[in-house]
From TrEMBL:
Listed Pfam families: Bact_transglu_N, Transglut_core
Transglutaminase-like domain segment(s): 160-224
InterPro entries: Bac_transglu_N, Papain-like_cys_pep_sf, Transglutaminase-like
UniProt-recorded name of the protein: Transglutaminase family protein
Length: 268
């Protein structure tokens, strides 16, 4: 399946901004089952300062905004060809060792809520690791209903379980915390998903991956109760959202910032 993606992020500031530096993880790479045919990133009102691959093999671009700007636009577009690998990514790569993905982070620390969730899944490995991880995925979405406006970027997996509502980011953090508590290395994935019912979207997507002996990394989209197929484009991975966020950065100034995202993912 060949996908065409156009992702535009527009920033508007109430006052001219100064000393703004953004870290962009918006460039997918060719990987197992994913071939990037073409990709470009354009920043109107910004200057690319540096590009590098981080410890997770994500392509990162550091962009500074021109001094005194009030409007900046980041446009990413390209074409990616995918094959359906039923969520199996395969052997571990990148510069970060596999053991690092067992490490808890503030967003994925396992507390009482996560431990109860793990206990509810059970300890029988007779059906295999992948089946058990799918059971975990189903248990999460049954306890945490998908609903926007209930959580924010800093909400932890523990907090989302307590609230009982969340979005794909929350589902991924809960899965990662629980999978690590079950003994699996796990990581966060940010990327794109082609929706079957619409082209226009207002946000990118997120899911999780767990490392299974004999298979390698396997993806789990908790929000949609499936493993990623050819409709998914992997862009960045990390221990949690903070290491795989499409855009992060800092700025000097106290003026109000407004951000508008438009996204189109469609089959060519």
């Amino acid at each position: 399946m060949q996908l065409r993606i156009t992702h535009t992020t527009r920033y508007h500031y109430a006052e001219p901004v100064h000393a703004v530096l953004q870290q962009l993880r918006l460039t997918p790479k060719s990987r197992a089952g994913q071939n990037v045919i073409a990709w470009s990133t354009t920043v109107e009102g910004g200057i690319s300062q540096l590009q590098y691959d981080d410890e997770h093999n994500n392509h990162v671009e550091l962009v500074s905004f021109e001094d005194g700007r009030t409007d900046i636009t980041v446009l990413c577009e390209g074409e990616v060809e995918n094959t359906n690998s039923t969520g199996v990514i395969g052997a571990h790569g990148g510069f970060a060792p596999l053991w690092l993905f067992r490490k808890a982070t503030p967003l994925t620390r396992a507390g009482n809520n996560v431990r109860k969730l793990v206990k509810s899944v059970g300890g029988d490995f007779g059906d295999g690791d992948v089946a058990r991880l799918h059971d975990l995925s189903n248990a999460i979405v049954e306890q945490v209903e998908y609903r926007t406006g209930q959580t924010e970027a800093g909400t932890t997996g523990e907090e989302a379980l307590d609230i009982g509502y969340g979005v794909c980011q929350d589902h991924a953090h809960i899965f990662i915390a629980a999978a690590r508590a079950m003994g699996y290395p796990a990581r966060y994935v940010s990327g794109y998903l082609m929706m079957n019912d619409r082209v226009e979207q207002d946000a990118s997507h997120a899911w999780a991956e767990a490392h299974v002996d004999g298979l390698g990394w396997v993806g789990f989209d908790v929000s949609n109760r499936i493993s990623p197929d050819e409709r998914y484009v992997r862009v960045a991975t990390g221990l949690d959202y903070t290491e795989a966020a499409p855009v992060s950065g800092l700025r000097r100034g106290t003026g109000e910032e407004k951000m508008d995202v438009t996204l189109q993912v469609q089959q060519q």
